[in-house]
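Private note to self, pasted from the team thread so I don't lose it. Backbone tokens:
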């Protein structure tokens, strides 16, 4: 029996932190490794979906699942959002306004959570609150899974970079990658590409080491067990307690 696809959620409660940039580039990084990957767009802005329409067919395949779209009247939701049978990794571009049932649904179907964070005082404060809320969420507490923070759009050796890294060092979750504030990410997005695709671009090659670092961290995490109706039914019943034999005779 094939193992289920590993699901990686990219999310932050604050918009503009680069979720789609991380999600699309992560999907490409897996695709370039020859892994069957699907990119699930949960954001109503449909940024990942737009990126996918720009992607050339000659590049490594990234399957798009437009989960933000409503199914047609002739389709069920499960059919509309179905994954290809051979999918190995699902990268989920979560939306910043996910609340209540939407957030619970994302957490239930997730194996690993990545939180991009920008090096500004506002983003650090908002990101810290989001992480605190995430770690205390009842769904997360009932089934904890790995959480990693990504320092995004940084300018190395600057005061803002140092403040962000100091903050991340005080968290209970690891900082798993650092991506520079480079225009190469904008160029890649306009072409429907990831920086790993751009082998002839010097600026893109500078980012490759951090993407390898991120993938290595994800690969090192133990697979999470998501609770499903099937898994609950397959759990063995607890053994019934043994009855005490009250009729046994005692020595005189």
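Design output:
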């Amino acid at each position: 029996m094939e193992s289920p696809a590993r699901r990686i959620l990219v999310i932050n409660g604050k918009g503009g932190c680069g979720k789609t940039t991380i999600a699309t580039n992560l999907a490409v990084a897996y695709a370039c490794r020859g892994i069957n990957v699907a990119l699930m767009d949960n954001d109503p802005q449909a940024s990942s979906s737009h990126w996918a329409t720009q992607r050339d067919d000659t590049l490594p395949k990234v399957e798009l699942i437009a989960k933000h779209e409503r199914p047609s009247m002739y389709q069920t939701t499960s059919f509309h959002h179905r994954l290809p049978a051979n999918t190995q990794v699902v990268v989920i571009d979560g939306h910043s306004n996910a609340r209540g049932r939407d957030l619970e649904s994302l957490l239930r179907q997730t194996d690993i959570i990545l939180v991009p964070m920008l090096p500004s005082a506002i983003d650090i404060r908002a990101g810290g609150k989001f992480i605190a809320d995430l770690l205390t969420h009842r769904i997360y507490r009932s089934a904890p899974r790995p959480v990693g923070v990504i320092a995004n759009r940084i300018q190395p050796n600057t005061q803002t970079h140092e403040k962000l890294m100091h903050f991340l060092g005080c968290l209970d979750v690891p900082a798993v990658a650092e991506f520079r504030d480079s225009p190469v990410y904008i160029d890649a997005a306009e072409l429907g590409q990831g920086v790993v695709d751009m082998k002839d671009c010097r600026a893109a090659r500078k980012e490759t080491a951090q993407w390898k670092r991120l993938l290595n961290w994800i690969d090192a995490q133990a697979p999470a067990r998501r609770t499903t109706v099937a898994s609950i039914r397959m759990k063995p019943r607890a053994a019934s307690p043994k009855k005490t034999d009250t009729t046994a005779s005692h020595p005189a």
